[in-house]
Amino acid sequence: MKKLSVILAIMLAFSGLIAQATKLGYVNTDRILFDSNEMAEITRLFQLDRQKWTGQIQTLDNEIQQMERDFDVRKLTLSESSKRELQEQITSKKEEAGRLLQQYFGDNGLAEQRYRELVDPLSQKIHEIITGIAEDEKYTMILDVSMGVVLYAVPSIDITEQVLQELNKDTIRPSDFDHDFGFPETKDPFEKDPFGDDFKSDMDFKF
């Protein structure tokens, strides 16, 4: 329904431009992000942070498991008060792990904040590059095929490569960047996105 509304809005915009000279173009922002040297570096940095946070939670989980094993071994020889004390300690440690998990990976947690902190400047930079190309080359409208709005377009009006060259001209791709970090392979811009809306919502880039 959302995509249909976007398509209808574009059709209305086109109807107002029929009497004017128009120059249309499109970009594939999925491909721009995937092939961006800066996004590769962002992904590398974010994965390092995730590993650090996950390691802290895993350490707590290991402590909890060890405490539970120790309790199982000793519980037959402990008094009721000692049992309660140890169980309270285990419960407290579990609550600590839960708070840490929420702090790092919950809604608006450190992971989300860090991701936004890294991605937002790149998102703005891509937007400015697209706007600059549009203004310099007198485009009337540039569409994003990765949003599922463009049903057909000739390759000659694709400015994706132009945007990528401008974006990557002053940067170097990290040598240890791993494509298995979760980005889809570059695909035909008119092919259905195999990741669907869930992947889009995770990325949630604003151009």
Structure characteristics:
207 residues, mainly alpha, Protein Binding, DinI Protein, Chain A, 2 domains, 7 helices, 2 strands, rod-shaped
Strand order in the sheet with the most strands = 1-2
What is the residue-mean pLDDT, rounded to a whole number? Answer: 80
Note the main sheet.
2 strands, parallel
CATH T-level topology of the largest domain: Protein Binding, DinI Protein, Chain A
Number of domains: 2
- DSSP strand count: 2
End-to-end separation in angstroms reads 21 Å
What is the number of helices? 7
- Provide the CATH top-level class of the largest domain: Alpha Beta
Second CATH tier, the architecture of the largest domain: 2-Layer Sandwich
The stretches of 5 or more residues where confidence is low (pLDDT under 50) are 180-207
The structural class is mainly alpha
Radius of gyration: 25 Å
Into which percentage range does the β-strand content fall? under 5%
Portion in helices: 55-70%
Q: What is the 3D shape?
A: rod-shaped
Q: SSE string, helix = H, strand = E? A: HEHHHHEHH
